[in-house]
Amino acid sequence: MKALYFDGQLERREVEKPRPAAGEALIQVLLAGICGTDREILKGYSNFRGIPGHEFVGRVVECEEKTWLGKRVVGEINLACGECDLCLWGLGRHCPKRTVLGIVNRDGVFAEFVTLPVVNLHEVPKTLSNDAAVFVEPLAAAAEILEQMQVPPAAHVAVIGDGRLGLLVAQVLHSAKAHVTVIGKHAWKLDLARGWGMRVASFDDEGIRAHRFSVVVDATGSPAGLDQAFRLVTPRGTIVMKSTFHGQTQVDTTKLVVDEITLLGSRCGDFRRALELLSHGRVKVQPLVSKTFPLEAGLEAFQYLNSTSCLKVLLAPTPVKS
Ligand SMILES: [Zn+2]
Ligand SMILES: [Zn+2]
User: Which spans in the chain are helix H?
Assistant: First the structure.
């Protein structure tokens, strides 16, 4: 099958089609999304080697459990051992032995086919298009914030970063009735947020520097975001860190202590909540799709992402007869 393969460098490769192990399904990838984590992987994040990609919608083409056959699915990306303490506490997403689809020791979805345990799969409702379903994974990650903390209605929340994840996080918090301000650098991306009824601001806005927020989400994907979050948060406020990047960053621990700020790391989330948000139309994802490339043009898709200010870029693997 055709795939993109990362071996210190991303290349197109013909690789062997994966075979599902016991309890797994073979899934034909219909559409895959490129996210910031994939770009960090190409810079060395998590020392990954193999087929990257973890955001997808696909169709089950082979499975021992026949009820799954032919179903359109999305898949949770953490593969837990199911036996350790964390797994038994229901924290499989933090299992120390886990592999992660396209991120840690497990081939991902920038390929024509992928395998996943059926316990990781969620059926996609017929009313959701592939273009929408491919956002379930990043949207679940955005919605994870609501699992982790109480965001009181009418709370003043700032989301730093007007990129793919920032605009999803902003919509999730807006749907939870928070007063959301999206802070970014791109007028056309901020216009989307404004159209959804949020306040928007740029980084060099004098007014925004003077403003303080009880919750600040860093969705910039860069080390600078945390610095800006510290400047905007109120004493006793919470900074939610959504950026994963290759490398380290500094934290002003004095300000953290003196202002009694809570620093909250936040990663993957519940797919069911994301499917619900999409099904009820509470989150708009169609305007976030910038361009779809065939899988063969995957390298060009990454170049496109690096060279333009766009939002979500999708890869469509060409269907082949198996
Ligand atoms: Zn991602
Ligand atoms: Zn485990």
Answer: 36-42, 85-88, 130-133, 136-148, 164-175, 187-195, 206-210, 224-232, 253-258, 271-279, 298-307
Q: Which residues hold their Cβ within 5 A of ligand 2, which is an ion?
A: 80-81, 84, 87, 95
> How far is ligand 2, taken at its centre, from the CA of residue 227, in Å?
34
Beta bridge partners of 31: 57
* pLDDT one-digit tens code per residue, 4-58: 999 999 999 999 999 999 999 999 999 999 998 899 899 988 899 999 999 999 9
- Return d(Cα 62, Cα 34) in angstroms, integer: 25
pLDDT, tens digit, for every residue of 87-133? Answer: 999 999 899 999 999 999 999 999 999 999 999 999 999 999 999 99
pTM of the full structure: 0.91
Cα 154 to the center of its chain, rounded Å:
26
151 C-alpha to ligand 1 centroid (Å)? 23
Under 8 Å between Cβ of 239 and 226: yes
From the CA of 117, how far away is ligand 1's center (Å)?
Answer: 19
Q: How far is the CA of 257 from the centre of ligand 1 (A)?
A: 31
